[in-house]
Design goal:
By secondary structure, the chain is an alpha/beta fold. Helices cover 39% and strands 20% of the residues. A 5-stranded antiparallel beta sheet has the order 1-2-3-7-8. Strands 11-10-9-12 form a 4-stranded parallel beta sheet, with helices on both faces. A hairpin with a 2-residue loop joins strand 4 and strand 5. The protein is globular.
């Protein structure tokens, strides 16, 4: 049995002890070796036991041979494959696979969502392994199976404890997750935007780190887009080893680099600052944590508040649209006129 992995297994120490108790013998202290023994012990169910971010490929040479691919629950690590005429190729980047024809369904999804969701890719013969899935290839045939599906609990199972109790449990869970992510064979940093999510992440990481945390920020000359002042407050409070750049980026010059980095069409404007701060961080660290997903988990986007308001004021907003459309336009980030116009145009839908 052979394995290759892109990622980190945070509970590999616990799994190693269990497997050693079951009779397995290890040659290294590497988290990747745990995957071999875990597969030998549990077969394709090995992925259920993993806590971490990973893209894993296991070749089982016993018998006729079979290949198993697995991707972590949230799809943090990319894993793509191409199954044509009984042959399976896989990679962490789309460019490593033969490209072929454009997938028109993927193009339609891109125009609707500004990105291409799994399992689609921009090329018809290539597919993303969806998050929380295992793929098994054997005798030229492919079978996919889901091993995890993170989702909110049903409405009738929402917990009703006191807010203070739930907040304390949330704080403990966040701290535990950050502590696990700091376990790495290489230096770890934090991409610090100055927003609430990355600032909270940096604060927890600084408290859990045994040495000064490394943080990285990108600022912009356009003041409405710049959050460096908030980032600097976090840096001062927690004494991080900080690097920052203030830029007036030329999007046209960066587009070729962005297209090369993403492999396929991607139209989220956050790609620009993310690319720049990642390039800065890559000069010092190999792993960087970010606050990605915080707004989705905790209702931080304006659209969540607008959705609640639309249920009560959708009809009135439609009547007010002619007046709102007269508001002067601003180039500031998420300006009032921008939010108001978007709201009156769609509140009745």
């Amino acid at each position: 049995v052979h394995v290759v992995q892109n990622g980190e297994i945070y509970n590999h120490g616990e799994l190693r002890r269990e497997l050693e108790a079951a009779g397995h013998r290890f040659r290294t202290r590497c988290d990747t070796e745990v995957l071999v023994h875990l597969y030998e012990e549990h077969g394709d169910d090995f992925a259920r036991r993993l806590r971490g971010m990973f893209a894993v490929a296991i070749w089982d040479g016993r018998g006729a041979g079979r290949l198993v691919l697995a991707r972590d629950r949230f799809g943090i690590k990319p894993l793509l494959y191409r199954h044509v005429d009984g042959e399976l190729a896989f990679a962490s980047e789309l460019r490593a696979l033969p490209r072929g024809e454009v997938d028109l369904d993927a193009l339609e999804a891109f125009l609707a969502f500004n990105s291409i969701p799994a399992p689609l890719t921009i090329f018809r013969e290539c597919r993303k392994l969806p998050p929380g899935h295992v793929l098994a290839w054997e005798a030229g045939e492919v079978a996919l199976r889901r091993f995890a599906r993170p989702a909110p609990v049903p409405a009738d199972e929402v917990r009703g404890e006191e807010d203070a109790e739930l907040a304390e449990e949330l704080r403990a869970r966040l701290r535990d997750s950050v502590r696990a992510h700091l376990v790495s064979d290489v230096p770890v940093g934090v991409l610090l935007s100055g927003g609430i999510d990355s600032s909270a992440l940096a604060a927890l990481a600084a408290e859990e780190s045994s040495e000064p945390l490394r943080t990285f920020s990108i600022g912009f000359e356009e003041r409405s887009f710049d959050e460096l002042a908030n980032a600097r407050l976090v840096v001062e409070r927690y004494g991080t080893r900080h690097r920052e750049l203030v830029l007036r980026p030329d999007a046209a010059l960066l587009l070729p680099a962005l297209a090369d980095a993403f492999d396929e069409p991607f139209a989220d404007s956050s790609a620009l600052p993310t690319y720049l701060v990642s390039r800065l961080a890559a000069e010092d660290v190999k792993v960087a944590l970010s606050g990605e997903g915080g707004d989705e988990l905790f209702g931080g986007y304006y659209t969540y508040a607008a959705d609640l308001l639309a249920a009560r004021a959708g009809g009135l907003a439609r009547l007010a649209r002619p007046l709102v459309e007269l508001l002067p336009s601003s180039t500031a980030k998420a300006s009032f006129d921008y939010r108001a116009k978007r709201f009156v145009r769609a509140a009745h839908l």
